[in-house]
Every structure is written in structure tokens, then in C-alpha cells.
Design a protein that fits this description.
This is MMPL family transporter. Keywords: Cell membrane, Membrane, Transmembrane, Transmembrane helix. It is found in: Cell membrane. It comes from Dactylosporangium vinaceum. There is one protein chain. The chain is an alpha+beta fold. It contains 22 helices and 11 strands. Strands 1, 2, 3, 4 and 5 form a 5-stranded antiparallel β-sheet that branches. The protein has a 4-stranded antiparallel β-sheet with strand order 8-9-7-10. The protein is elongated and about 90 Å long. The two termini are 32 Å apart.
Amino acid sequence: MADKNLITRVARWSATHAWLAILGWLAFVVLCLVVNAAVGTVPATSNDYRVGEAGRAEQITTDAGMPGAEYERVLITAKDGQTATAADLDAAAADVTQRMKAIDQIREVGAPLHHTNPDAVLVPIYLKAGDTWARDNIQVVLDTTAGAQAAHPGLRIEETGSVSIDNGIDVQLGKDLQLAEKITLPATLIILLLVFGALVAAGIPVLLALSSVVAAMGLAGIASHIVPDAGATRNVILLMGMAVGVDYSLFYLKREREERARAGGKISPAAAVELAAATSGHTVLVSGLAVTAAMLGLYIEGDVVFSSLATSSVIVVLVAMIASLTVLPALLVKCNRALDWPMKRRHQSEDRPGRVWSALLRPAVRAPWITLAGAALVMLALAVPALTMQVSLPGNASLPHEVPQLKTWDRMLTLFPASGVVHVVVVKAPAAEADNVSAALTQLAARAAADPLFVKTDPGPVTTSADRTVSRILIPISFSSDAPGAKESLDHLRGQLAPASLGALNGAEYAVSGDVGRDADTVKRQEDRLPWVVLFVVVLTFVVMWVAYRSLVIAAIAVLLNLLSAAAAFGALALVFQHTWAEPLLDFTSSGFIVSRVPLFLFVILFGLSMDYHVFVVSRIRELVKRGVPTREAVYGGASSSAGVITGAALVMVSVFASFVFTGLLEMKELGFGLAVAVLLDAFIIRVFMLPSLLSLLGRHSWWPSPLSRAQAAPPVESSVAAGDSDRLGARG
């Protein structure tokens, strides 16, 4: 075969230098891990998360050299069904205080707070270092608390707080991911066995996807020196890597088998691989670039979490794409004789359409208007609930309560409501105004305590920086951070109470921060930038498809169908997670909203992953059109012959995404469910009914302005449409 493009040249080189290609890939994977181990991973810090008014308040205190307002709490109570004396509780509190003061990184241990009915003591612990240290070293504090518990077995001594809760969630998420991995790998292998009927052919895509995931994790750690890791890297790489890695290998491997079958086995392994590269290799390249283009839109958000997600996704998709185009041809050549093991090799034409798919696709080409209208109505009906979607960042109430620190948090709030969620009010003013600022902040806290949106408590202390230019006070609320009352209290504090108490200060600048303020400002920025992200993804996807197929119509169809698929997925998400009816089925507690990061990330991933199926189907159809088959006949032949492999690919993706529904973290559960539903809708309703109907209706105009739109007068040269089917398709495009 002549050197037509880079893809076929790379495949030919890999096939003829198989061992060198395989060893080179293994060396690349190892190198990624070694370099990452040497340079480490840079985690995101609080500076990277700052946004809006909350970020401004945090920057003011940081510039003034003031320590963070976050702190841990140690709750000391009697064990369930038992009683404890005040002396026992005081002795335990004194022991906890002494142990914590011995830790170098503890800045201060506050005075114990007492509750008399029932008896309980709360010991506040203020961390000396910033959040980076806290994340890496909180286990020291937790171990110290455990030591105090061991010394007082008659009491319950537990620690809670934002840092220990995050640590507990990480531990729980690690367990959940292990469960997801245990589900994903066997399910993927079983599905591929059904697709190929051979163990070796099924194992290659899984092994290649796993190696891509490993390499991507190493590269993501290296990339964190440019874009800090926000903590979700491993989850996203596993999610995306298994999905696209298996799909890309599946498309390529299936085509290689078809070429061998078409030649009746009378073709060399290298030649079969080269033929597959010229077709499915192009599909993999276009799909990989489409996914990458979509993921780039996340950078527009300017949010460290989305930037980290985008970086991880782009890396693993590109690695999986490169693996399929480089080392996969070598593996296929070396495993050629064993590919069909343990089944006996058959050389029938594997690209002939199956009876089931032929029957399902026939309405799209015989009655395209009716088929299109029916499928569109189904998708639009599913999309309707999306109009009621509410979004918010998750608080403790929406986190997995298997985490011990969260259970302790709930008990602490019952006994000490003022030690729960707080608003942080920061004022920057000339040093000469420090006393006036302190008085105004105390007055503000007193006004808040008299308001039903806040905790009725005496005003806490005002903290002032060493140079007396920055002052801060904490104002507690009795709501969890994701409750509607929390946002209402923030708006009331920012809009009325703070201006009334602080607005008259000379030369003063003030801002309100805290968990609630930070979440509210983050959601607002997401909403403000969402239209630009959507526009970027849509336009860039359109351009990629236009360049790949030289058809404005094909590009427009891809964008429109993807938008419809995303809308239906959002509708299903709102229908399930904003209500309580599905709680026992999916093991979650509804918060009445969708985690704000999920819809945007879901939209971007969908726009990319949907290209897998779209590109594969359109490429098969275009192959037939280029060989002289009329468009309507080519639609039937191309869509039906590719339906089996798309079904297998979709089931693989669904098994990967659905495994995340079993995690305890609501955000991962929603993302896994949304992606699984979207893939099912995209692979079956969109690709089986809507896309073939549209292309059948448009006929040769589907390829405008490509030369294919003007070159269908010639009689068919060769068609893969099943014998006899072409006569039943009606008018030809």
C-alpha cells in the first residue's frame, strides 16, 4: 500500500518493528512513573481556590500574615448508653490539651467548651501551618486524638473539622475506587469476550487501556507543576482512560479482524494492520482530537478544579490515542495467531450487518421523517426535567456519612452549634482605626446573634494582625454549608448587616469569606463563564469535524445531536438526584440539587466521548459513499455493519461509568450516572435512529461542500449492504 498518511506509515513501522514498538511503549510507561516519582506531585493550595469576595478576604488575611481561620475540634462525651462525670470529662480535656500542645505544628489549643445536658466538652485546636501541611500531616493530629481515646476507654473522644473530614473522605473514596476497579475490569473483559468471542482479542484492549492509565497518572503528576492537582486526578484518569482506551483499541482491533476475514485469511498480519490503520486509525485520531478539543474548554472556567480535571483528561485521552496508533499494531502482529484463541478462527465477512441491527436501522432509511420525529420526542421528553435543575457545591450534608469525622461533626453541631459553619468577616483599615474596627466587628456579631439566620451566642473575639491593619471575626450559623439557609444568611450578612456596621469606617475595606461564601462565589463564577465554555466547546468541535470530513453539514449534525444528548442526560440527572424516589436504588440522600461541577464536566466529556461513535459511524458510511454507494444505501450498510462494535464499546463505557455510581461521594455518583445514561442514549437512540434518519433525509447533501456531495451519479462499485436489503430501502440519496 502506498504511503497515504502518517497514520498508515506509523502502523507499518510498528507492524514491521513489533518488538521495538512494544518495548518502547513499556519504557515510556516506566519513564512516566520514574520521572513523576522523582519530581513529585504539586497539590493545589488555598491560594489556587480563591475567587470573588471570599478570595479577596482570604488574600487580605494572608498578606497581613494572619493564620488561617480553619481549626479542628475534639469532642469528648460519654459513650452511648453510659454516663460520665464532669471530672472525667475535664481530665480527658486536659489530657487532650497537653497532647496537642506537644505537636509542633499546632499553633494553639483553645479553652475547652462545656455543655451540661448531656455532659460534653469540646476542645478547639488551631493548626499552625497552611492547608498544604494540614492535608499532608493531619494524620499526626488524628493519631494524637486516638492516643487520648486509648487512655480514656470509658469516654468517646473523637476529632472533626474540615481538614480531618477531607482526609476521611479521601480514605473512603480510595475504598470506593477499589470497589469500582473490581467491578470495571471483570465487566469490561466479559463484554469484550462477547464482542470478540476470544480471550486474547478481549484482553489486548484492557491491557493497553490499563497501561495508558498508568502512564497518564505519571504524566499528570509531572503536569501538576504547571497546573496544580486539585485531588481528583486519579479518579478522572481511571474513568476516562478505561473508557476511551478500550474504545480506541476496540475500533482498531475489530477493523483488523474484518480485513483478515474479508481476505479469507489470505493476507499478512502487517497488511491487515495497515488496512485497519487507514480506516479505524483515522477514526481514533479524529475522536481523540475531538475529545481533547472539548476538554480544553474547561480551562476557560479559570477554576483550579476544572483546570486539573481538564489536564488529567487531555493527558489520558492523548496517551490512549497514541497507544492505539503506535503500539497496538505491533501487538496485533505479534499476537496474530493467538488473537482468536480459544475459538477456532473463521474467515467469514465480519462486516456484514446482523439481522437485529438491520431490522432496527431499516425504519431510519425507509421512514426517516417518522423515525427522526419519534426519537427526537423521546430525547426532548427526557430533557424536560433539566429545566428545573438546581446546582450548588456540596456541603457536609451531601458527603458520604460512612466517614467517622462527619458523624462526629453532626453530634458536635447538636451540642455546640456555634462551633459549626461560620462566616468570616475581614476588615482592612489604617492601623489608627484598629479600635474602631474592633468595636464595629463586635457590634456586627451582636446584630447577627439577634437575627434568626445566625446562632444566638455572645460575640467571639476579634483577631487583629500584628501591624493592626487587618481584623477578623467569626460569625456562626446553625445550617450546614449546603443548606438554603446558609446562602440566605450570607446574602443578608453581605447585603445588609456588614454595610450597616462597617460601611462608616474611615478608609476601610471589608469582605466576607468562609465555606459558604467561598462556595457561593465559586458557583457564581461557574455560571458567569458557562456560556463561554459551551460556545468554545461547540465551535471547536464543529471545526474538528469540519476539518476531518470537509463537510459543514456533518459537523453541524454532530454538534446538534451532541447538544440533544447532553440535554437528555441533564434531564435524567435532575429527575433522579433532585428527588428522593431513587435514594434506595442508588444509595444516596438527595440534597435537592446537583453538585455544581457535575453538569459542566459532564457536558464537556459528553461532547468529546460522543465523537467516538459519531466518527466511527460516519467514517463507515463515508467509506461506502466514496466507493460509489448512494448515501441512503451507504447509511444502512455503514450503520448496520458498525452497530455491533459500537454496542460493545458503549457497554464497556457504561460499565466503567456505572461502577462510579457505587461510590459514596455524591459528586462521583452523579457523574458516573450521568455519563452512563448519556452513553446509552447516544449509542442507541442517537446513532441507531436519529443520525441515520438525518443522513437518509439529506442524501448526498449530507457531505456538502465536500466533493462527495456531487459525486454520486456513478453506479455502486462495492457495497456492504446485505443482499436484498438495498431493494427495500426506497428512494436513494
